[in-house]
Amino acid sequence: MPRKNFGRNRVLQPSAAYTPTSEQEVLDILDRHQGQSIRAVGRLHSWSEAILGDGVQLDLRRLNDVSLEPDGDDFLATIGAGCQVKRILKELNRGGATLHSLGLIDVQTIAGAISTGTHGSGRHSMSHYVEEVRVARYDESTGKAFIYEINAGDELLAVRCSLGALGIILSVKIRCRAQYNIQEHFTESKTLEGVLNAEESYPLQQFYFVPWRWSYFTQHRCEVTGKRSFLAKLYRLYWWGIMDYAMHLKILFMMRVLRSRRMIRFSFRRIVPLFVIRKWKVTDRSSSMLVMKHEAFRHIEIELFVPREQLPDALQFTKEVIEVAGSKDTSLSEVNQRRIDDLGMQEDLAGLQNQYCQHYPICVRRVLPDDTLISMASGEDQDWYAVSFISYAKPKRRAGFDLFSRFMARSMSQLFQARPHWGKISPLEASELTALYPKFDTFRTVSKTLDPQGVFQNKWTTALLDADD
Ligand SMILES: Cc1cc2nc3c(=O)[nH]c(=O)nc-3n(C[C@H](O)[C@H](O)[C@H](O)COP(=O)(O)OP(=O)(O)OC[C@H]3O[C@@H](n4cnc5c(N)ncnc54)[C@H](O)[C@@H]3O)c2cc1C
Q1: Which of 59, 63, 378, 457 has the fewest CB neighbours in a 10 Å radius?
Q2: Mean pLDDT throughout 55-64?
Q3: Residue 462 contacts by C-beta under 8 Å, 6 or more apart in sequence?
Q4: How far is the C-alpha of 422 from the C-alpha of 412, rounded, in Å?
Q5: Which residues contact 72 (CB under 8 A, 6 or more apart)?
């Protein structure tokens, strides 16, 4: 039976599929399928080719134990590979702990989340906190499957974000912290400078660059010692009812039913901002505050990571390209037109004109540099900003988004060193992708050592490992 991913842009047709209940069963399956291509999947919330594979497929959802041990002031949790983040949070909370870093949703598995560098805002990505990974792979001398523990050196840095390319992850040991509360409130700012200046007081904040209104709505967030607010439950209800559902239903209605660009623009200028209650300060438990029901409605996403010093130029460029993509008679500023000319992308820009109307706020999140080889925030000493573009068009009507995402990835990777999220739409060629990671070669060496026959690769990871950068 073919399976589709969340975004309905990938179809998986494995030759055999298993949902093992124990580590021994994983080893038995590997032994039974010696020499064949084998990939694991999590909950298929990636949009990229990372999840593809036409060989044997393993779904480790039944390996989902969570155990917690104190470690100095911190905690270490050992988590079965297929455990979903929501279950992890529940189990950790029982022991007064939580994860350092969380994405916007909590339905991914731990193995899937770390394998693509999943991140939130104001901290490192989840991969950075991984201390040990146990993988099932083949022993070169006997050809038999065995369990290999990775907890140091380049192998650890590689397995922290591995695209499924180092073997089947069985469990992950990850550094956790004591549970804590977060206070948040929204403000609107006309300038990026104003938003970035607020980071000092609100290090966990994220912001939304609102298309067509072109202002910044910032979700200011900071850790506090104060208790949960009296109105925290009401705030959760507001988020669930108004932001997660009402606002998204409105966007879906405009995109899928009305399909009027004029209405979309008007709505972002005048109506969407009305959904946001400003300056309402609420304190709640971190794991409630940091996630939303972003998986409630099907969509597709590309997310580009740019280093901090490039952020102002990258956002100005983004605004101009969105305006060109959304109308017949808009052009880039002189400086950005020159950049496109220098890249030889004039025809790509002409092909994008009037083909795509941005219809979702552009979420921007700060990610601290990761100690990994190839997670998107790896390898620089400055912070990275993940800039995301989302389309709610029906899967059959994504041609405009495809053009837009390809154009943004190709231009921004060359202009601003932008790195596409490994789990999201990633339209670059293998060599263009690997060239963005100074330590990709070390990753390649580790992968070829742990999986010399390439049995854990798919076409995409094979191309990445073989790319000339
Ligand atoms: C609605 C939505 C919101 C999202 N929000 C965020 C966000 O806020 N921040 C962010 O960074 N990302 C976000 N993502 C992306 C998501 O976190 C990643 O794509 C993540 O990898 C999905 O996890 P998964 O369990 O579904 O894994 P899958 O998508 O199934 O797999 C991802 C990769 O992990 C590998 N893998 C899975 N299990 C194993 C295993 N046991 N052994 C070896 N390899 C394995 C797979 O082979 C594949 O390469 C979001 C995605 C969606 C759909």
Answers
A1: 59
A2: 98
A3: 454
A4: 16
A5: none
- What per-residue confidence (pLDDT) applies to 379? 84
Any alpha helices (H) in 43-180, and if so which ranges? 85-94, 110-115, 153-159
* Nearest atom (ligand 1) to Cα of 39: 47
Coil, helix or strand at residue 44? coil
b/e burial code for range 303-331 (CB count within 10 A of at least 16 → b): bbbbbeebbebbbebbbbbbbbbbeeeee
CATH 3.30.70.2520 is the classification of domain 300-434: yes
The string over 370-409, giving b where at least 16 C-beta atoms fall within 10 Å of a residue's C-beta and e elsewhere, is bbbbbbbbbbeeebbbbbbbbbbbeeeebebbbbbbbbbb
| 160 CA distance to ligand 1 middle (Å) | 13
Task: Choose which residue among 3, 45, 63, 119 to substitute to test ligand 1 binding: the one with the highest number of ligand atoms within 8 A of its C-beta.
Answer: 45
Q: What's the pLDDT band for 222 if we cut at 50, 70, 90? A: very high
Q: Which residues contact 172 (CB under 8 A, 6 or more apart)?
A: 78, 79, 81, 110, 111, 114, 130, 132, 133
Q: In which residue are the tokens 């076409």 written?
A: 459
Residue whose CA lies nearest to ligand 1 atom number 41: 169
Which pLDDT does position 1 carry in this prediction?
78
Could you report the per-residue pLDDT of 351-399, keeping only the tens digit for each? Answer: 999 999 999 999 999 999 999 999 999 987 899 999 999 999 999 999 9
C-alpha of residue 188 to centroid of ligand 1, in Å: 31
Atom 32 of ligand 1: nearest residue by CA position: 112
Q: Based on C-alpha coordinates, what's the Rg of the chain?
A: 22
Measured in Å, residue 117 CA sits from the centre of ligand 1 at 8
Cα separation, 283 vs 246, whole angstroms: 23
Closest atom, ligand 1, to C-alpha of 294: 1
Rounded distance, CA 297 to CA 82, Å?
Answer: 23
Q: What are the domain boundaries of the chain?
A: 181-289, 300-434
Q: Concatenate the DSSP letters of all residues of 173-212 into one string.
A: EEEEEE--EEEEEEEEES-HHHHHHTTTT-TT-EEEEETT
Find the 454 Cα to ligand 1 centroid distance in Å.
21
What gap in Å lies between CA 81 and CA 83, rounded to an integer?
A: 6
Give 401-419 pLDDT, tens digit per residue.
999 999 999 999 999 999 9
pLDDT 10s digits, 306-323: 999 999 999 999 999 999
Q: 218: which strand partners?
A: 187, 207
Percentage with pLDDT > 70 across the chain: 100
> Hey, which residues does 10 pair with through a beta bridge?
none
DSSP calls for 52-65: --SSEEEE-TT---
What are the φ and ψ backbone dihedral angles of 366, each rounded to 5 degrees? -85, 130
pTM of the model: 0.98
